[in-house]
Design brief:
The structure holds 2 protein chains of 2 kinds. Chain A is mostly beta strands. Helix content of chain A is about 5%, strand content about 25%. In chain A, the strands form 2 sheets. Chain A has a 5-stranded mixed β-sheet with strand order 2-1-7-5-6, with no helix packed on it. Chain B contains 15 helices and 21 strands. The chains are: A mainly beta, B alpha/beta. The complex binds flavin-adenine dinucleotide (FAD) and FE2/S2 (inorganic) cluster.
Chain lengths: ~110, ~475
């Protein structure tokens, strides 16, 4: 299990703010209740969320405002959820899609 | 979810006096005024909370622990709710029905919603202007706005060691937000030379409001010893699965490296572009601003578009900052109330508002003039873009392909280039690459586009849906028959 506490210094420490537990690719992750899913993932330094369907290279959140679709993940079985405009809640199950082909030479 | 509404089996229909798309400063200002005057108002936003970009709300747990960075936003939202406006968050407005007046939306459970109103107010805001460079698609490369949202509303750092780059005043407050969270900002690369002779000199210019604000950011950055590299642009970002370094170049010679900096995040943006797709889809006239290459709706003083029942307000009507956005929202509300014969605005208040808006416009022009204009930027950056740079992130289309197609089969036509190469055809609808693709096309066919008279300026057209719509929504919208057939 990774906890935000362990990342203090890498991201601003969670202090006493109430924490919520979500599950990311099977790992239990603690984060401040109600923040955006993109913030949880970036705070954990889990940047790669998917592969580009054309080139196969890894992608992560870019615009942070719902425009680029680079942060799409599957949430509680629903695909194509933009992590940057989604707030976390207790028990949320998140799947990224980073498996698969490595990108061709670039 | 705030508003009570049942998810009808297909196509819930909403009829109101006023429907407002976008719950940022502009939409909220309009909603508060209209609803408190007694009109039936619905305000929609695709985000889970109202607030838009500037008033993006921190999670309650964050606000309690670290404070609310913009409490006035919370107050404005509360005012809108108290006035009785129906607030629909998690609602994406993705298109317009064939009748040209019914908005098509999907709610937070992906059910379709149709909305009709006597007045439509479009307050869809802006998105960031980006320009590609090799490696910009690496995880860890983001817009400055993303870093700002992470810091301000989620109290999360985008990285431990960050370079900010691009152009415009927005880079300074973002750098300050990062420093406040203990991030090491290795430097700010600004494409222009706005800070003369030094950053601190801004404060002596004697212009209140926006410039003084800039000067205070500048002072904080100077104290934190954050270098500002002027006339400097990103040459490329490197890293395996994630960005690990950025190489910078002089803006005048964008292909020659001058410095490489190790980073774990890189945030690059060149200001903002108005989000005008819904206005265009509703048939509102737009003009292309020659200096920026952006589409701007043609509006009257109160934001009334070429269609009398449609208003475009806030940054969707042109970039001008939060105060201008709020003033435009209010002006539209007043215009609607006057047309409705309700509580006409006293002449003195109207006059005050007019002069406030003129003052704001002057400040915007002044700040804008400090930074290189987007068209000038394109003219230097586009020709220097290396051939194998991924320009369209969605469809992975490279610079060379765009240049070759533009000069060849597309004969310098932007939309033909798009159709041939698929650049701009992905889920972001060309919002991320549109600026660059236009620049590339222009750079190989200098006879076309901006600088050649307004009639020849080209931008990607607005396309339905404005964002990908869940299949479930479309099926439900089409009615039970289509779902049966599908099962
Ligand atoms: C990422 C980002 C961060 C920014 N941060 C700052 C900052 O820190 N300080 C600053 O001074 N300025 C900032 N700005 C500039 C900002 O745009 C303005 O200051 C201000 O927010 C503009 O207000 P607005 O009401 O016009 O639009 P916005 O605040 O952008 O609000 C528009 C709203 O419309 C919604 N919307 C758009 N299209 C649709 C649709 N089709 N369906 C449903 N909803 C839709 C959006 O979700 C958004 O909430 C930022 C801009 C961006 C893009
Ligand atoms: S980061 Fe761009 S849509 Fe989420």
């Amino acid at each position: 299990m990774t906890t935000a506490q362990g990342r203090t210094g890498r991201r601003a420490g969670p202090g006493r703010a109430p924490q919520t537990e979500i599950v990311v690719d099977g790992d239990s992750v603690q984060a401040v209740d109600g923040i955006s899913l993109a913030a949880v993932l970036v705070g954990e330094r889990r940047w790669s969320l998917r592969r580009n369907p054309v080139g196969g290279d890894l992608r992560g959140p870019f615009c942070g405002m719902g425009v680029c679709f680079e942060c799409e993940v599957t949430v509680d079985g629903r695909p194509g959820v933009r992590a940057c405009i989604t707030k976390i809640y207790a028990g949320m199950r998140v799947e990224t899609a980073t498996e698969g082909e490595a990108p061709h030479d670039r | 979810m705030t508003a009570e509404h049942s998810a009808a089996t297909y196509g819930e229909v909403v009829e109101r006096d006023v429907v407002i798309v976008g719950g940022g400063p502009a939409g909220l200002s309009a909603a508060a005024r209209l609803a408190s005057a007694g009109l039936a108002v619905t305000i929609l936003d695709e985000q889970p909370e109202l607030g838009g970009q500037y008033y993006r709300r921190p999670a309650p747990a964050v606000a309690r622990q670290w404070g609310d960075h913009r409490p006035e936003g919370g107050r404005l939202i509360a005012q809108v709710r108290a006035a009785g406006a129906e607030c629909r968050t998690g609602h994406l407005v993705w298109g317009v029905e064939d009748d040209g007046r019914t908005l098509l939306a999907s709610d937070d459970a992906e059910h379709p919603v149709r909305l009709r109103a006597r007045y439509l107010v479009l307050a869809t805001g802006a998105f960031e202007r980006v320009f590609p460079f090799p490696g910009w698609q690496l995880p860890g490369v983001t817009t400055p706005g993303f870093a700002q949202h992470l810091a301000a509303s989620d109290h999360t750092t985008v990285g431990d060691r960050v370079v900010l780059a691009g152009s415009g005043p927005f880079l300074l407050p973002v750098a300050c937000s990062l420093i406040e969270l203990g991030v090491s900002v290795a430097g700010i690369a600004e494409a222009g030379r706005p800070y003369r002779p030094s950053l601190r000199a801004l404060g002596t210019l004697g212009h209140p409001a926006r410039l003084r604000e800039l000067a205070s950011y500048a002072a904080r950055l100077a104290r934190a010893r954050v270098p500002i590299w002027q006339e400097t642009v990103v040459l490329r970002a490197d890293g395996r699965d994630r960005v690990s370094s950025v190489t910078l170049a002089a803006a005048a010679r964008p292909a020659r490296p001058v410095r490489t900096v190790e980073v774990d995040a890189l945030c690059v943006g060149y200001g903002f572009r108005p989000q005008t797709d819904l206005a265009r889809m509703l048939g509102c006239q737009v003009r292309v601003d020659v200096a920026s290459g952006d589409a701007v709706p043609v509006t009257g003083a109160a934001g009334r578009a070429s269609r009398a029942d449609v208003y475009v307000v806030g940054e969707a009507a042109g970039i001008g900052g939060v105060h201008a956005a709020k003033a435009r929202g209010l002006a539209a509300a007043h215009d609607i109330l006057t047309r409705e014969g309700r509580s006409a605005v006293p002449v003195s208040e109207a006059r005050r508002m007019m002069s406030a808006r003129r003052r704001l416009a002057r400040f915007t022009a002044l700040t804008d003039s400090l930074y290189p204009g987007p068209a000038a930027l394109l003219a230097t950056l586009a020709p220097a873009l290396p051939a194998d740079t991924v320009v369209c992130r969605c469809e992975a289309v490279r610079a060379e392909e765009i240049r070759t197609t533009a000069a060849g089969s597309a004969d310098g036509d932007l939309n033909a280039t798009k159709a041939w190469t698929r650049a701009g055809m992905g889920p972001c609808q060309g919002r991320e690459c549109g600026f660059a693709v236009a620049g590339l096309v222009r750079s190989v066919m200098p006879g076309r586009g901006v600088g050649d008279g307004e009639s020849r300026v080209e931008i990607f057209p607005s396309r339905l849906p404005v964002r990908p719509v869940p299949l479930a929504t479309l099926l439900e919208l089409a009615g039970p028959e289509s779902q049966k057939g599908d099962a």
